[in-house]
Amino acid sequence: MGNVLTDEKIPNNVNLSGDKRLQRALEAWQPAFIDWWKQMGPLGWQERDIYLRTAVSVETDGWAHFDHVKMPDYRWGIFLEPKQEGRTHGFGDLYGQPVWDEVPGEFRNLMKRLIVTQGDTEPASVEQQRDLGATAPSLYDLRNLFQVNVEEGRHLWAMVYLLHTYFGRDGREEAEELLARRSGDADKPRILGAFNEPTSHWLSFFMFTMFTDRDGKYQLSALAESGFDPLARTCRFMLTEEAHHMFVGESGIQRVVKRSCELMKQDPNGDPRTLGGIDLPTVQKYANLWYSLSLDLFGGEVSSNAADAFAAGIKGRYKEDRYDEHKLVGSHFAMDVLEAGKVVHKDIPMRNALNEVLRTEYIKDCQRGVDRWNKTIKDEGVDFEIKLPSPKFHRQIGMWSTVQFTPDGQMIDAETFAKRRGEWLPTAEDETFIKSLMHPVYERGKFASWIAPPGKGINGLPGDFEYVRL
Amino acid sequence: MDPTQFETHPSKYKHWKLAVNGEIATLTMAVDADHPHRPGYELKLNSYDLSVDIELADAIQRLRFEHPEVRCVVFGADLDKVFCSGANIYMLGLSTHSFKVNFCKFTNETRIYLEDASGSSGLASLCACKGTTAGGGYELALACDETVLVDDGNSAVSFPETPLLAVLPGTGGLTRLVDKRKVRRDRADVFCTTAEGIKGKRAKDWGLVEDVVSRSKWDDAIAARAKALAAKQTVTRGPAVQLPELSPKITEKAFTYRYVELAIDRAARTAALTVKGPDGAPSDLTSADTWSLRAFRELDDALLRLRFDLPEIGIVTVRTTGDRAHVIAHDEALAKATTGFAREVRLLQRRVLKRYDNTARSFYAVADTADSCFAGSLLELALGADRFYMLIDGDEKVAVQTSVANQGFFTTSTGLSRLDARFYGAPADAAKILARGAEGPVPSEEAEQLGIATVAADDIDFEDELRIAVEERASLSPDALTGMEASLRFVGPETLETKIFGRLSAWQNWIFTRANSTGEHGALTLYGQPERPQFQWKRT
Questions:
Q1: Which CATH architecture has domain B249-488?
Q2: Which terminus of chain B is less hemmed in, N or C, by CB atoms within 10 Å?
């Protein structure tokens, strides 16, 4: 083996240099990862110096180390939040008992499935976004894209660490499979449907990081409560990085709507499109699309898998310690369900409703972001409000997927939906229009016509810093 | 509750789409979640219940009779990522023990018929699993000649029953895995305890599937394999004969068909089954109305209704009426005919007789009238019964007679004929009966001496003898009788079928009654519920 992995090459706090088994597994996997990155990572930018943040330790000064680096040389590391001695199960049937440091055989497959499903989304999103570098609206945004990409790569490393360390031969095979599947590939698609569509332009990229990465935040938060301590610690550290992705999305759309408002005021007819901007109703359509696709990622509204994972102490609720009761036997959650084609409000056993409980927290968080967009619009003096559609609107998974709703939650028949779809969701014409705006702007400090500059740059630097060396 | 309908037609299917294209037929599983057999659960993700399997059984039967041009049937699904997720768990959780047992038995019979269609009728089968293939879904695949699994990095074949539900893959899965597919038993052990199953190359390496194929090569690979399977078939088929509806009259008191009647005495917990012989010599051997086909289809339908809708009827007397010569003439005409249809009729008779063997009711065959006609194919009903009572009448009108039908074609699950099973270990005695039967009718007294009749009695004793035997039988524990009959009926060697209906089903039915599956804290009870199962840890 010529591929020696040192703590210098792979920053970590898992004692890689002292862990022969992990070293051996990673020595085989790491070159495959680099090959995958070169083949499927950002297209055309592998040899450029990018101003990227690298985590080199979990200390306050270590997790955000900035420097120019070529992406294939990026130091993908393995970090877990430091262990809390004496931690106990925070929920489920084993509430109060010591957490596991090793995978219990009984739940091995269930856990492996969860980790693989989560892990699969990380490289998938890199693949979905690989063409975006060709049309970046600025060097600032280009750098943010690559930051998101390398961190998705690091999240893949985090999941692979768990698979290699705790799941033996099966885990090594699953880790290989994570590099073998390809987003959108007819033969080896990514596991979740939403991760098989390319992110075709920057508006979708911002919506993806706003809504879909936020799903990641909630899934990771639920796993961060896990009674399997290494999983919990891994996810907690990943959450610090996920925050940046959502910042990219939320602030990206905020800048889009700010620009729209500015152009509305400039254009005599108030139409930002004529001046190379994106009109707010079109922004609303893309929000409708990505929000509804992201809601699907939480799984079925009533789910025995969710109940099992909670009972077994594997997947908890968002911020479990805010709750008083952690076993959830005999308690219920009041929610809308579909019964005989009608919406009824009903008590569902809490454990079976946990996907919906997590989705409800997610919706609140999305609303907070949308509120900030609306404040920007209001501050610009424009009368328009972006609204999150009903959670029942345009669903592909779960009980609402068999019926149709308007964005304000009225049930309608499939024919009416098909007729009015173009009012609510991007049409082919909208896609063509958005793509027509996507011209790269690689000049320092300049921004594309459809997006406002950011309020401030990265790491306290100015907006016209050379974030990417051409 | 409404009577169960076992008759259907492709034009009425809710859960399958049958398409015939030359020598290849496709059966696409497209389960309609909103039309379960009984209300109370949804048939999501191509999960199945009795209503789905009734259509499957109908489709296989019709392919044999109505589409002799078909040489290979390909099973597929209309879902993108799921082939079939097996028997519906919520349905099992809601069902009575007796329903579960009969459901499993019926589905087992359907899968054995699929294998029989391949083995005897030149109708091969290919399971095209383009997605998750779990539990009963994989058991359907195991019943096919070949199985191909999509290689998409995700889809697996699996038996999650034991790890998830604390029951068994009871539709022949365990048996076929090792006995038919010859999967190494330690690997089978790993497979059956890995809920998520096995996918890709390993599924092929372990012999769980014939091949794994990528999505982009899927359609071509399936078409080529189906064509190759079809090309191997050499059995003469046809001509095509449409199977008409039987349209029985179903009342509280009786199921009445053209040739079959089941009269029900609920107070006594008994029923009287009567099968009429043919009205005359065979005339048209290319008609679905020919007695041999019509009467046995009716008997099949009556047996299924008896199993599902009359659980408290524990003992059934079996009588025949008609002309023995006509029965024998029909048997001989079929045996001599060289058409595929004629052979198909005999194969159907064989399957119906096996269904009779596998019905958990006490059967007493009774010959007590001058027009009793236990001859040839109908004699099998007496030989398959638990006991055979014959009246010794003065003029020896009451008699039995053998035909070509008793010479070995109608094998039981063990592979033996009913005569060979009756005289297990003494083949000469069976031969003696065939020789004697060829000479003409064997009257009651002689039939008893030869070992055909269990009891032969004259008119002074007969009525009492029979009445007491029936009343006594009706008083015994139905559970013990089921176990006893199933043990005695299948004398002889073990086969795949006897293992499935005996070993596998018996263990499954035992597990179904245990707390660890169906108790308050059992895994089947709690499936989909918020609590996790709690097991009682004592092993037997």
A1: Alpha-Beta Complex (3.90)
A2: C
